[in-house]
Amino acid sequence: MRHGHQNPENDVAIKVQGLAKSFGDVQAVTAVDFEVNSGELFGFLGPNGAGKTTTINMLTGLARPDAGTIHIGGIDCTRKPRAAQHLVGVVPDESNLYPELSGFDNLCFCAALYGMGKTERQARAKELLEAFDLTKAAARKFGGYSKGMKRKLTIAAGIIHRPRILFLDEPTTGIDVASARQLRQLIGDLHKNGTTIFLTTHYIEEAERLCDRIAFIMSGRIVRIDTVANLVQPIREKHVMQISCASGSKDLLGELVGEFPDLNFTSPQPGLIQVEADASIRVGPLVRFLEDRGAEVAEARRIRPSLEDIFVRITGVGADVMRREKERPGGNQ
Amino acid sequence: MKHWIAFWNILTKDFRTYYLKPPNISWGLIFPLAWTGMFFIKSGQGLESISSILPGVIALSILFGTTSLLAVTVTFEKKNRSFERLLLAPIPLELLMLAKTSGAILFGVVNAFIPVLMAAFLVDLGHVNWLVFIPAAVLISVASTFLGLFIAVAVSEVFEAQTFSNFFRFPMIFLCGLFFPISALPVFLKPVAYALPLTYGADMLHGAIHGGNIMSFPLSLVILALFCVGLFLLSLRNVKRKWIL
Question: How many CB atoms are closer than 10 A to CB A128?
Answer without folding.
Answer: 22
